[in-house]
């Protein structure tokens, strides 16, 4: 449990600290190999995605819709608002006879600066079988609300852990 401002973890070779990410966040193109698995099936694979990087959060990956197999994306009820990216719509992710309800989201008309992710799909790692980046299985960001993808490439501490509400 943290109180006050956290102390960033040490950064090793080939790593980046989420405490060096900006606020407001930035979006950057990525050539990482990214996979999403639901129901024991790989429903998405790409080497063309975008990472949204925000202070204290592990990256959130946005995949182009063509990365998903046919039938893997199904519109879901509800929406939410991000102060940085605008209004999000939700998707159920479908694979292997399993439905991961509202496990994906996208911005049809993102705000200025985030236009490149228009229509691209982000995935909540905790809601699917697994997400994989460059052959490493992603660890979901804690908190149940956040969609960050934790790999050995990033160090925290990460927002979402107990005591991090005010970060």
Automatic annotation (TrEMBL):
It holds the Pfam family NTP_transf_9. Signal peptide: none annotated. Residues 1-27 are annotated as: Disordered. InterPro entries: DUF427 (IPR007361), DUF427_sf (IPR038694). Residues 34-125 form the DUF427 domain. This is DUF427 domain-containing protein.
């Amino acid at each position: 449990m943290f109180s006050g401002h956290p102390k960033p973890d040490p950064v090793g070779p080939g790593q980046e600290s989420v405490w060096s990410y900006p606020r407001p966040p930035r979006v950057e193109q990525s050539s990482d190999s990214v996979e999403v698995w639901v129901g024991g099936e790989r429903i998405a694979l790409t080497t063309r995605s975008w990472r949204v990087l925000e202070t204290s959060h592990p990256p959130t990956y946005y995949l182009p819709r063509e990365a998903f197999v046919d039938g893997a994306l199904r519109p879901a009820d509800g929406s939410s608002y991000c102060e940085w990216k605008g209004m999000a719509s939700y998707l159920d992710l479908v694979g292997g006879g399993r439905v991961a309800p509202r496990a994906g989201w996208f911005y049809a008309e993102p705000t200025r600066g985030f236009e490149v992710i228009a229509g691209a799909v982000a995935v909540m790692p905790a809601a699917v079988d697994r997400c994989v980046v460059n052959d490493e299985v992603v660890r979901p960001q804690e908190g149940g609300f956040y969609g960050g993808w934790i790999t050995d490439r990033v160090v925290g501490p990460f927002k979402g852990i107990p005591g991090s509400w005010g970060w």
